[in-house]
Amino acid sequence: MASLILSCCFISLSQAQVKVKNLKKHIEYLSADKMKGRETGMEGSLKAADYVEKHFKKYGLLPKGEQGYRQPFLAKVTRKKVEDPERSSDNIIGFIDNQSPYTIVIGAHYDHLGYGHIGGSRDSLGVGKIHNGADDNASGVAGLLELARHYSSNNIKEAFNFLFIGFGAEELGLLGSKHFTEKPTIPLENIHWMLNMDMIGRYQPENGLAVIGYGTSSAFPKIFEGISSSIKFNKSKDGNGGSDQTSFYRKNIPVLFFHTGGHDDYHKPTDDADKIDYKALEAILKLEIDVIDNSMKQPKMDFIWTN
Fold it and tell me: pTM of the full predicted structure?
């Protein structure tokens, strides 16, 4: 995963308002069997989008889609031949307006593989079984919602605005984030940077947390200066990485992608909520809050192409 790796492991000083009980509630709901694997265009994915929208409303985020919180788009299944390849999907978009000229984007995709019929399953015998996607990416959505709750309830008027996005159809080829960056609901030139969370629930101490995109702005070394965590994290320079931050990176926007790495349950029916490391997930979100807060001490960030 990318080029230069730098390691650090300290003790977090963050007093973040992250609640494990909320993370657990979100992940257990999104990865329950009744969600049927959240396949794009199917009932479970629609319920997941509704769930994100409901919490954006609850936290008082302003709607910043094209139809309220919604940014509809057409997604297409191309990896496998299916009877209904064209699917309706939505990005769910909420805004915290701090009257700043610049905005930090925070995103995570809510879709998954359904029963595996659309392709992507790593278990040939598991096709036809529900792929619950607790780590991929109910964990990231739980993080998205907790960060939205934190920044909407911390009683601080921050120096930057926040745009929170639940992306649809990531598993079909980053389609939701591609659509947003082609038809943005805020000007792309006003984005300070973008933070993406995809698979942040299965921390492995021997590997550490991957923080991808460290090289995409000269400001990141300043931002990470003095930041510490109870978990090990490795900073990687490249802005690409097989998830939604790539769509922003390709539009010359600085990015960070937080990711706890692959595991034996990746894209299999066994990616379940009881395997999530909630204590480590809490630590990851506290680290992200420290990074976000430090980024707001910087002027508008420059962009560096790392390829």
Answer: 0.94
